[in-house]
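The data are set out underneath:

___
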Amino acid sequence: MNKGAAPVASLHSELSGAVADLGVLVPIAVALIVKNGLSPTAVLLPAGLLYVAVAVVYRLPVAVQPLKALGAIAIAKGLGADEIAAAALIMGTTFVALGASGLIDHVGRAFPRALIRGVQLTVGLLFLNVAWGLVAHPPSSFSEHALAPEWAIPLGAAVVALAVVLRRRPIALALVAFGVAVMLVETGGLPSLGPSPLELPSLSAATFGAALTALVVPQLPLTFANSCLAPVDAARTYFGERARRVTPGRLATTLGSANVLSGAIAGMPVCHGAGGLTAHYAFGARTGRAPLAIGSALIAVAVLAGSGLAALLAAFPLPILAGLLATAGLLHIGLLRDLRGAREWLVAVLVGAIGFGLNLAVGLAVGLVLWWTPVLVSRVRSSRWSSRSILRFPKQSDTR
């Protein structure tokens, strides 16, 4: 396929790709609704609007996901809507400023392909880990309808096998449609209609302080790397010249703007994700029709069925969510196949291992030191380099 021109993709392929990333969205959304008390309409509306913005701005299936580290911490600590809203506002204003200033585009040049592949390895491993947890240790918000692990694990594995073998067919769409049918049967039919109430958060200096330390600081490195840098690389890998609109600065601006809205209505903080882009692409999404479809669906559900959404989503079959998520993780790890040489593999694997096992910020710091120390030493030793050029980061193409 010519990656410089928009492909001709069937509607069912676009729809299949559109729903392929629900394995990330649904579990976190349900937990935030059930455990943290967020309004279902406020949870889904920012994600739906950002997907529609993606269709207009990028015209590609750029993913929209919950802020994963932030969401996981908020769920684990049982934080309320006010702290989550404050964190969304801090994240939103920070990334709008980074995008508008152009700073993030410049800083991104310091991250060569090997480091980005390390981030993608981290995310792929995280996807696999979350998928395992969904079937082996079902979240409490799904416990009423969850299958026992001895059934859920093999069913999840079967979904992975089907998804990998049939990913060029609309398998994700078929699986999600089946899951929706099971969900409706489990809950006794359609929920009550109408949106759930939206409330303005109650914010104070203490609320912002708690949100900054507990939620924002752990999330910032992941958002910077996996929402602003890694999607650019993945988009260029999959779409070539068609991905020219996808830049770190634009991604920062769109996700930042969505989080300002999310914080204002006490909703779910959102981001872009490289792993989600892989999921959309792997199952057939090729154009802006995919994000437009899933965004419109999320908005419709938020507005028309938000009042009864908590009970409905909690009945969605976890093996399907886990299988789609695990498939996306495996395919995302597959991006490492274009690494060349021991140095690139060492940096990527080390960043991925540290990012998954310890902390992504630490992994990135180690990777930057390993990558740039030999370069800077070489430049210092060479009389051809001026003091100014020693500190200049080459373009990404120069580091490949």
Notes: The radius of gyration is 21 Å. Residues 218 and 385 are 38 Å apart (CA to CA).
